[in-house]
Amino acid sequence: MTDTTTVVSEVAAHAAAAARPFAATSPSARGAALVAVADALDAHAAELITVAMRETGLSEPRLTGELKRTSWQLRLFADAIVDGSYLDARIDAADPAYVIGPRPDLRRVLEPVGPVLNFAASNFPFAFSVAGGDTAAALAAGCPVVVKAHSGHPELSRRTAEIVAGALDAAGMPAGVFQLIEGQQNGVELLQDERIRAGAFTGSTHVGRLLADIAAARPRPIPFYGELGSVNPVYATYADAGLLQDFVASMSGSAGQLCTKPGFLFVPADADLSPIATAAEAVAEHRLLNPGIGRAFEGRRAAVLGAEGATVLAEGALREDEDGQRYATPTVVAVDLQTLRAHREELLEESFGPLSVIVRYHDAAELPAAHEELFPGNLTSTVHARAAELADGSLHQLVGALAATSGRVLFGGWPTGVSVTPAMQHGGPYPATTTDATSVGTAGITRFLRGVAYQNAPQELLPASLRDDNPWGVPQSFSAAGSSTEWGSFAR
Amino acid sequence: MTDTTTVVSEVAAHAAAAARPFAATSPSARGAALVAVADALDAHAAELITVAMRETGLSEPRLTGELKRTSWQLRLFADAIVDGSYLDARIDAADPAYVIGPRPDLRRVLEPVGPVLNFAASNFPFAFSVAGGDTAAALAAGCPVVVKAHSGHPELSRRTAEIVAGALDAAGMPAGVFQLIEGQQNGVELLQDERIRAGAFTGSTHVGRLLADIAAARPRPIPFYGELGSVNPVYATYADAGLLQDFVASMSGSAGQLCTKPGFLFVPADADLSPIATAAEAVAEHRLLNPGIGRAFEGRRAAVLGAEGATVLAEGALREDEDGQRYATPTVVAVDLQTLRAHREELLEESFGPLSVIVRYHDAAELPAAHEELFPGNLTSTVHARAAELADGSLHQLVGALAATSGRVLFGGWPTGVSVTPAMQHGGPYPATTTDATSVGTAGITRFLRGVAYQNAPQELLPASLRDDNPWGVPQSFSAAGSSTEWGSFAR
User: Which segments constitute the Aldehyde dehydrogenase domain (chains A, B) (predicted)?
Assistant: First the structure.
């Protein structure tokens, strides 16, 4: 084995060498390659899920669903790129009569930014890991990908990477479009390499911010798309037994180790919260992902249980086995709004695991301002209200506050169980994400694209997407000569 | 006058208070307001140009053209937003049969990020200043704007701000949508204020990087769109007298104080460069924008003229008047590629003023690699070649290298004289811009937007752009129920 720096430099060199040939592939060829990866993952499902169960402690049904989602999002991205609309191809005809002076022939298209370094997450060993959403988006955009494997599932990472690389190679994609590295130091060194042009990450606020700062401090900074932390407040105008049971199911699923776990539930002060204990006791213990996450959860749980003014609704249990793995059942405490404000240190931070806080409020009119004060950046916010309240305009202020601070606003339902679709937004104001970009759904492809304009270019030297003969048949938006004198005249 | 921090805090509070009402205005109302600003600027052209001439030393024809461009780009943005396509409204129908599990009704739209702080430039007192492109883009997006005036044209900044604010107010836009601040310290403090949600900047690499670092180091970082520095290399396969004369005209226009000035011209080693001196001598002296820029140019000029191996083709003149203003005529030196590589320190840095370097090359095959090595990030790169060369494929490698490192690639012509159009890209890899986003043309609006998704929202609480009755008549892209089973199947 050569030294670390040599390995990192070779990986960067391979990715850089692949960048231009990969960028030149047609959307349909790249789409077919993504589908080939999806097929290969599906074909190896049994093997992969077995390894994942052992390495993460997640359940077979959960991992089966997650792998299906993972191969599905590759197909979704393939479908999203084939028509070429994501390229946003624009053609301005040369216009000697352009209002501010003769306009040349200008053509602009979104091109891949170059090699992307993707830091895998621990809690979704498929969907946010080696072949996950960031990888799918970057490959769809035409960027070579290097994944820094998460140490929580090394064997799964290696096997997944073999399958992905093999399928891309068999589909005729250039060598070097997909590589795996391991080790924190390698990840940091590669993030600082000039040849890496964007970073992506899913994980804790602490680590995500460290990496974002490294990306921003490079001699030539690069964009860093981190999905860091979110407590996903839920505002209920009523709280019956069904709602409280569903809440416990959502906050305890996958042992609460989801970035969309509802960490806070606001309920009227007079709500009967007795169904919480019953529901929580019915949840079986679940292993936390790894000893490090277990330790961190133990600390957070102790802080919350010890917060002055917190009423314990369900204490839950937490035990450690001989390997240092921890197993938990749900913990739920209740506070009033005043206590939450007074004990932000202990209560407001994200608890990654099966722990949530119920906040009793006396006056619903306080909620919009309280939300903006306490929760300035989240992946999601949720409203549970009766049909009449949804229709009568009384929630307008609250919904405005939620939309201003969240990537996704839900009405009814629970934020866990993120669908992968064209209209999904999984990213919001910091610290939900380091930028406001989405890391789930096809809109996330724009993270890995940049505009390039060609002025008076001969047809022979234009990208296919901008040529008059349009060989890929992509949508081209056209600004005709002579049209400029009309611009802005709608307002007259 | 209250103290600085109070002023900054009040400005931030006004901007924040305007954010939600402004975001709720319809694209056509906002477009009409932009047109009203354009009309008001045009109506005050004579007065504004007189002030600008005195404060910047730029010529009346140049400033007349620049003001026309400035009002024009407001009209262009107005026209670009009225149809609502920039909102990228997406609607996924609820789909119980969605392949990865039942899909809720999901609707996503781009919403304004919130208050934007825009640092004005010195060299375009209209087009990149108070009412310039960043202001137009942010207002078009629906974001309140605070402009930090450039100290080089304070009176013009104040008068322009009065006109802009008055027109927006008369058009019915909320109070606080447009404010001006002055002073470096105020700018830095406001950039650190929680209520500012994005920054924009046009200026030097040094100052731009300082501000970008401040934005990235905030407790909650924000995107910072800086347009910093560019040397805009030009690659010529031939160099006749006409080409060399046009080069001198481009590098000396506005005293070379343009971010798209061609700072380097590559020519075959045997080219006759004698027309350079003749053309340079015919250029009248031009004032530099202000004493600070004059001083910096004096230093850069001395470094370049003193670089070992540089042949002086036109020494130019530089004199200082009693007010510390400097006046220059063009300086052009020639080096070979080897000298350029050996003396990067002196030669490669941008010289903001009428100074450029001609690089003689012996082998055109060296150019792609040399370009990528020496010029990793530029606003523009240009090719001058004969028709046969443009058609025969011999430039393919070079154009690939230019596109990978530049925002705009020109064929013939000169990079100065940036048109404002839908397909313009004025932004490229660092240090051209801090991100790859464009600061000219309508594509720049995306800098000030972020995605928000609504899940199972009642019609009454959806933004107008996402409602079924679509009152603004915006394009809505629709994903129907039952369609998902087909996704990715094109590859079969």
Answer: 7-367
Q: How many A/B residue pairs have CB atoms within 8 Å?
A: 291
What pLDDT score was predicted for residue A2? 47
Pairwise CA distance, residues A129 & A119, whole Å: 8
Residue found by looking up tokens 């690499």 in the block: B205
The alpha-carbon gap from A66 to the nearest alpha carbon of chain B, in Å, equals 9
CATH (residue range B234-411):
3.40.309.10
pLDDT of residue B491: 80
The one-character DSSP state at A282 is: T
Task: Please state, in angstroms and rounded to a whole number, the distance separating the CA atoms of residues A16 and A2.
Answer: 20
Record the tokens describing residue B134, joined without a space: 């960043």
Task: Tell whether omega for the bond before A125 is within 30 degrees of 0, i.e. cis.
Answer: no
Per-residue pLDDT, A4: 67
3-state helix, strand, coil in chain A (%, to 5): 45, 20, 35
Could you identify the residue written with the tokens 């490959």? A139
Q: Find the largest Cα–Cα distance for chain B.
A: 79
**Two structure tokens written together for B216:** 């990235």
Which CATH number is associated with domain B4-228+439-449? Answer: 3.40.605.10
DSSP B212: H
pLDDT-derived band of residue A102, with 50, 70 and 90 as boundaries? very high
Residue B483 binned pLDDT confidence (cut-offs 50, 70, 90): confident
Residue type, B114: G
Please give the backbone phi and psi of residue B286, each rounded to the nearest 5 degrees, phi first. -135, 140
ipTM for the predicted complex comes to 0.96
Domain with CATH 3.40.309.10 in chain B: 234-411
Amino acid at B37: V
Identify whether the C-beta of residue B68 lies closer than 8 Å to the C-beta of residue B202.
no
**With 80 as the cut, is the pLDDT of residue A373 above it?**
yes
Are A178 and A144 in contact by the 8 Å Cβ rule? The answer is yes
Phi, psi of B283 (to 5 degrees): -85, 125
A137-164: burial string, b at 16+ Cβ within 10 Å, e else = bbbbbbbbbbbbbbebbeebbebbbebb
Give the span between the Cα atoms of B352 and B367, in whole angstroms: 25
Angstrom CA distances, B42 to A365, B47, B71, stand at: 47, 10, 7
Cα separations in angstroms, B234 against A228, A448, B242, B333? 43, 28, 15, 15
Domain with CATH 3.40.605.10 in chain B: 4-228+439-449
pLDDT in tens, B153-191: 999 999 999 999 999 999 999 999 999 999 999 999 999
Confidence of residue A5 (pLDDT cuts 50, 70, 90): confident
CA-nearest of B402, B37, B55, B39 to B230 is B402
Known catalytic residue: A259?
A: yes
Within 10 angstroms of residue B44's Cβ, the number of other Cβ atoms is 16
Instruction: For chain A, give the percent of residues with pLDDT over 70.
Output: 99
Taking only the tens place, the pLDDT of each residue in B47-101 is: 999 999 999 999 999 999 999 999 999 999 999 999 999 999 999 999 999 999 9
CA B137 – CA B25 distance, rounded (Å): 15
B111 by DSSP, 3-state: which?
Answer: strand
Structure tokens at A278: 């019953």
Tell me which chain B residues have a C-beta less than 8 angstroms from the C-beta of A88: 443
Using pLDDT thresholds of 50, 70 and 90, give the confidence band for residue A1: very low
Residues in A touching B422 (Cβ below 8 Å)? 90, 92, 108, 477, 479
Rounded Cα gap, residues A475 and A457, in angstroms: 19
* pTM for the structure as a whole: 0.96
Give the E-state strand segments of B178-330 in sequence order: 178-181, 198-202, 224-227, 234-236, 264-268, 286-287, 311-314, 318-320, 326-328
- Active-site pick, A227, A346, A372, A373: A227
B 69-88 residues inside an 8 A Cβ radius of A: 69, 72, 74-76, 78-79, 82, 88
Sign of CA dihedral A221, A227, A229, A233: positive
